[in-house]
Amino acid sequence: MRMPSAKQLRSLEKAVTKYAGSLSLATSYLQGRGIGEETARAWRLGVVASPEPGHETAVGRLCIPYVNRVGVIALKFRCMQDHNCKAEGCVKYTQPMGQEVYLFNVLAADGDGETIHITEGELDCVVLSEVLAEPVVGVPGVNNWKPHAHWHFKGWPRVLIWGDGDQAGTDFARHLRKEIANAEIVPMPSRHDVTSLYLEAGAEAIKQLVGTDEDGGDNDQV
Question: What is the pTM of this model?
Answer without folding.
Answer: 0.93
